Amino acid sequence: MAQTLTETAGSLEAMTPVPYAVTAKRQDTYDTWTLELEPVDGAPIVPGPGQFNMLYAFGVGEVPISNAGNFETDERLVHTIRAVGAVTKALCAAEIGTIVGVRGPFGNTWPIVEAKGKDVVVVAGGIGLPPLRPAIYHVLKNRKDYGRFALLYGARTPTDLVFLDEVKSWQCNYDVDLDITVDVGDTDWKGKVGLVTKLIPPAQFDADDAQAFVVGPEIMMKFVAQELMNRDLPAESINVSLERTMRCGVGLCGHCQIGPTLVCRDGACYTWDKVEKLLAVKEL
Amino acid sequence: MRAVLAPEALEAIVDVLRRRDWRVIAPTVRDKAIVYGEIASATELPVGWKDVQGPGSYKLERRDDEARFGYAVGPQSWKRELLAPSVRLLQIKRTNGGLEPVKDAAETKRTAFFGVRPCEVAAIKIQDRVLIGGKYADEDYLQRRENSFVIAVNCGEPAANCFCASMGTGPKVEDGYDLVLTEITGGTHHFVAEAGTDEGAELLAELPQQPAADADLTAAQTVTDAAREKMGITLDRSDVHDLLLANLEHPRYDDVASRCLACTNCTLACPTCFCTAVDDANDLSGEADDRLRSWDSCFTLQYSEMHGGGTRKETKSRYRQWLTHKLSTWHDQFDTLGCVGCGRCITWCPVGIDIREEVAAIRATQEAKS
């Protein structure tokens, strides 16, 4: 052989975690923390809205986590992490000053710039809000360029809602139709109770000229997409973000396949028409 | 460039390459199977052996001639040389509260693969597409691939599980080799050799040889034609992509799941299966993590493990993932099929599940429906 076989970028750099320091940390819920990360050396990477990074905790391992930062102004990486496995627990336990590893950004981006001039409907379920935050900030910053903006946010309980003060500030400072619901309330909850899908029929948007961005558990995204289509929003105008286990993040390890697509390479952002049939098959 | 070689010329191939300080990896007999290992002499080839393969069975038998390549493929493939079973991608050291990634020096030794079957050449081309044909190239694979030198051997005697003719990958290699040999055992035992690259031609020029006449090329063609005839077509690939996608909920998957042990043998023996795990392994001092890339298999539950458990909990989902990936969605992902018809998954399946039968069973009811 002894010849150059590819012009492609080598993966070793992409597989090498870059040291970042935890510079700020906030507890969002009983099991969720938001970390802000700055590179130990050099300039931070600049992820696009919808992209993810592989975050590495020394001695434990690596997980894909969506970027939650305001990518137009933040000079830090922002990641909101729910402590569910060994790596996410280690990351959530990281103290300020801890050095973690970052690879990325990987995956595609939300077509938020392409949605200019249209109504925007954002539907978030629980910790699905942070991955949408970069796209939301883009709309807020360029608010005049977009039509109506409906932000529908649901969670299992009031304690599962993240960024609540920030979300309410968006409602106050920008023209945002905010609607919030929880599946199950508590004694202090005075808001709506019910599934997030119930917020869709009354939402204000022009189905002929709107783009929806939906993130939450897969089952939630299915019902939300169906409800949006019941409002005559075409499947092509419904954007979702899918999640599968990933070991490399760069299309080489095979783990994130869903039928014909590799989530790390072709996603994680998809329009509903591309994935509806795939997600309808159990355990595909 | 073509030539006729006597069997002794194989020794010259090994000599020439080893004098260049190349590694020569070739089929050898070990533990009653034909496996790939480094050789120092062509006498280490499996001279006078053949293999008898069936679903879930494999054994070596003596031939009544001195054929060097009188067998089909064994349990291993060249994948173990190119996409090594486990490699350290890098090491991450803990230094004074920080992290320091350290990369290993690349191995640069040239390696000749001596005795690569047409289906295996096809498998290497498929892995090239997957591992170095996209946005990111697997650097370890790329390094090994660029150091590789492929001496292919056309097939004259397919095993019972061979179906390369169905997949269009053999029994005659079309491209992707440096040098190709066709072994002719009838009459005077000899080889017809043809160079596929300049490097292959350089090697051929150094070998003791006779010129190849038209009759020699015809004889070589007869060998592969007979092999193709013997195999026949046992899997119709023309519409298999759509057939499987249209039958994702087919009851045959329940049937195969009642037999499948989810043991992962098929994926490990498969020359195209490329899935790997990336794990960070600590040393005992706790001061360094080795980032290891190791073969993984879609037949394990951990393969699809996320928060909330694996996405493919049932064996039938895992078999469906494997089958549809090989023959259908691989094409969507990488613009090529993921099966080369080598038959390893059939031979090395402990319960003898036959990919051709599974496709045929789905096709039979599909056709009955329409």
What does this protein look like?
The complex is a heterodimer of chains A (284) and B (370). Chain A has seven helices and 16 strands. Chain A is α/β, with parallel strands linked by helices and 284 residues long. In chain B, the strands form four sheets. Chain B has a seven-stranded mixed β-sheet. Chain B is built from 13 helices and 16 strands. The longest helix of chain B has 20 residues, at 315-334. The model of chain B has no long low-confidence stretch (mean pLDDT 95).
Output the helix-strand order of chain A: EHEEEEEHEEHEHEEEHEEEHEH
- Please report which band the strand proportion of chain B falls in: under 5%, 5-15%, 15-25%, 25-35%, 35-45% or over 45%: 15-25%
User: Which regions of chain A have little confidence, pLDDT < 50, spanning 5+ residues?
Assistant: none
Helical fraction of chain B: 25-40%
Number of helix segments of chain A?
Answer: 7
- Largest chain-chain contact? A-B, 53 and 67 residues
Can you tell me the overall shape of chain B? globular
Low-confidence stretches of chain B: none
Strand order of the largest sheet of chain A: 11-10-9-8-12-13-16
Strands ordered across the widest β-sheet of chain B: 1-12-11-10-8-2-3
Approximate strand percentage of chain A: 25-35%
Distance from N terminus to C terminus of chain B (CA atoms, Å) equals: 52 Å
What overall geometry of chain A do the principal axes of the alpha carbons give?
globular
- How large, in whole angstroms, is the Cα Rg of chain A? 19 Å
Please write the CATH class name of the largest domain in chain A: Alpha Beta
Kindly report the oligomeric state of this protein: heterodimer
Main sheet makeup of chain A: 7 strands, mixed
| Rg calc of chain B | 22 Å
Return the average pLDDT of chain A rounded to an integer.
94
Percent of residues in helices of chain A comes to 10-25%
Short description:
The complex is a heterodimer of chains A (284) and B (370). Chain A is an alpha/beta fold.
